[in-house]
Design brief:
3 strands, Dodecin subunit-like, three-stranded antiparallel β-sheet, single chain, alpha+beta
């Protein structure tokens, strides 16, 4: 039996780190999507205020199996 994977694109941000932004993206997506198999970070950026990073932002693709 072949498997079909669907991919969605999400944006997420965190005050702490890019890793935290990625974890938040997966946690939020898992509320409505079951069977998440992976996350591919396609872009990372940050908002800077003065000389300090205040927001870590990611664009990511989350993949999951379709039943």
């Amino acid at each position: 039996m072949s498997k079909v994977v669907k991919v969605i694109e999400v944006l997420s941000q965190s005050d702490k780190s890019w890793e935290d932004a990625a974890a938040s993206a997966v946690k939020s997506a898992s509320k409505s999507i079951k069977g998440i198999k992976g996350i591919n970070i396609t872009n990372m950026s940050a908002k800077v205020d003065g000389d300090k990073i205040v927001k870590y932002r990611i664009n990511a693709k989350i993949s999951f199996l379709i039943k």
